[in-house]
Design a protein that fits this description.
about 260 residues; alpha/beta; Rossmann fold; SIR2/SIRT2 'Small Domain'; 2 domains; six-stranded parallel sheet; elongated
Length: about 260
């Protein structure tokens, strides 16, 4: 079986990282602390005009990422990647936890970038940074002739930026040959995620959508060209990522018909 997993922040809840929204969400806390929307804080405009603000936020986020270890859900997907005929994970997460499981990095597309990578926004040089709470921010690129204006940035997709076109094309191409899509830990708030799902369903794939508030008639599904086909192909499982994946993955590997029936397979 060829399998595609689309993952988001909910997958890392079991690692001790909060989701982005909600009462305990990362973005909720950031907005309360700085008194401005996160879409403004984590943006190229802020990087250019108030880089110390963006980096203050980033150091706080990175401290959480650095301490986190993969959850049982992450390891379940790693096990699935080894058992599937072909496997790909398209993740919105920048925490790097999927790769920390030891999964083949060729099987992971970090659609929003990685907290482990840093790049000069002026010359594009990739830097290795050891981040500390007392470091001088923003860090500057020593390779540029004008280092005062050459800020280093996290190699992540900020608000207002597009995801990498090559990554999207790779995800779409793979989606068109899968039998099953597992969506977990994401609210599917971005149209490009629906585009990946729609490509898979158009090719005949089934979709398992795992989320505590999962709904097979997700409002974003109606943005798909053939939304009825997407809805009909989807089974919604209201569960956490860890709980559901620990049941689904063994059932897929062992071919447990009764267990798979609970997931609409």
């Amino acid at each position: 079986m060829n399998i595609l997993a689309i993952t988001g922040a909910g997958l890392s809840v079991g690692s001790g990282l909060p989701t982005y929204r909600g009462a305990q969400g990362r973005y909720t806390a950031i907005e309360a602390e700085y008194g401005m929307p996160v879409e403004k804080i984590v943006s190229v405009d802020t990087l250019n005009n108030r880089p110390e603000l963006l980096w203050k936020h980033w150091l706080n986020m990175h401290a959480h990422y650095a301490q986190a270890t993969p959850s049982i859900g992450h390891f379940a997907l790693k096990r699935l990647s080894e058992a599937a005929n072909e496997y790909m994970e398209v993740t919105q997460n920048v925490d790097g936890l999927s790769l920390k499981t030891g999964i083949d990095p060729r099987n992971v597309i970090e659609l929003h970038g990685s907290a482990q990578r840093y790049v000069c926004q002026k010359c594009g040089f990739h830097h290795q940074l050891g981040l500390t709470s007392d470091m001088i921010i923003p860090p500057r690129c020593y390779r540029c002739r004008d280092p005062e204006n050459a800020f280093i940035r996290p190699d992540v997709v900020m608000f207002g930026e597009n995801v990498d076109e090559n990554d999207m094309n790779r995800a779409i191409d793979y989606a068109m040959k899968v039998d099953l899509v597992i969506v977990t830990g994401t609210t599917l708030a971005f149209l490009y995620l629906i585009a990946i799902l729609a490509a898979a369903v158009e090719a005949g794939a089934k979709v398992i959508y795992i989320d505590p508030e999962a709904d097979r008639e997700h409002p974003m599904f109606y943005t798909a060209p053939d939304h009825e086909k997407l809805i009909n192909a989807t089974t919604a499982i209201r569960s956490t990522a860890d709980e559901a994946l620990c049941k689904l993955v063994p059932a897929l590997i062992e071919g447990d018909v009764a267990a798979l029936a609970e997931f609409g397979l």
